[in-house]
Amino acid sequence: MTSTFPDISLSTERLVLRPLDADDVPALAAMMSDEQVGAWTGVPQPFTEDTARTWITEYAPAERAAGHGLDLAVAEFLTQRLVGLIRLTRTNWHVRSTELSYIVAPWARGEGYASEAALATAQWLFGDQKLQRIELRTAADNTAAQQVAQKIGCISEGVLRNACIARVRGEDGGWSEVRTDYIVWSLLPEDIEGADGQLADSGGFPGYTDWN
Q1: How far apart are CA 136 and CA 154, in angstroms?
Q2: What is the rounded distance in angstroms from the CA atom of residue 1 to the CA atom of residue 43?
């Protein structure tokens, strides 16, 4: 039975999803240093180019090799500019499930890239990888990330109370941690049927300007 994700590339109408490489170091460092990424994710802050290089050359390959997950760079098809990151974590190969999350660079928000990349990843996971469940967790106040989950067909399953650590900027410019709830979403193979049509009916892949 498969216990690791392959090194793959996926294409959509506007995007290429591929493994991270050394050329992504500056763009990854800039994206991960954004205020909203710092607030809603647990990535190290400050996120330097050295941190980005370690992530790309050591952390991400080790996570994939161990069977825990997969990081995919999301780049514009025409320009090859890095617009975001899709992350698969907490993969359970016996249950055939994984947790999906997404980050988009500040300059690329509002273009619907999150929905497009997440949907393509889900279709690949259910089709080629034969997964049976994808889980998403969004902070209770991260309403735009929740909209992306809804857009690709996810079903809200409930709330994990007090389970999320978010971060806020203090007056001194430093980060402090605050507790909030997680909303848990799931996506099953049958949920994704018609997701392409729903996105098309809404005018393509609508963007959300205030998420991750």
Answers
A1: 8
A2: 31
**pLDDT at position 52 over 70:** yes
β-pairing, 155-169 with 97-104?
A: unpaired
Give the containing element (helix H, strand E) for 29: helix 25-32
3-state class (DSSP) for residue 24: helix
* CA–CA distance, 35 with 43 (Å, rounded to integer): 11
62-116 per-position pLDDT tens digit: 999 999 999 999 999 999 999 999 999 999 999 999 999 999 999 999 899 999 9
**Contact (Cβ atoms closer than 8 angstroms) between residue 128 and residue 147:** no
Name the more confident of 196 and 182: 182
Structure-block tokens of residue 54: 């370690």
Q: Which residues contact 54 (CB under 8 A, 6 or more apart)?
A: none
The band of 193, judged by pLDDT with boundaries at 50, 70 and 90, is confident
The answer to whether residues 55 and 31 touch, using CB atoms and an 8 Å cutoff, is: no
The reported pTM is 0.88
Residue 137 bridge partners (DSSP) = 184
Considering only CA atoms, which of 12, 17, 206 is closest in space to residue 112?
A: 206
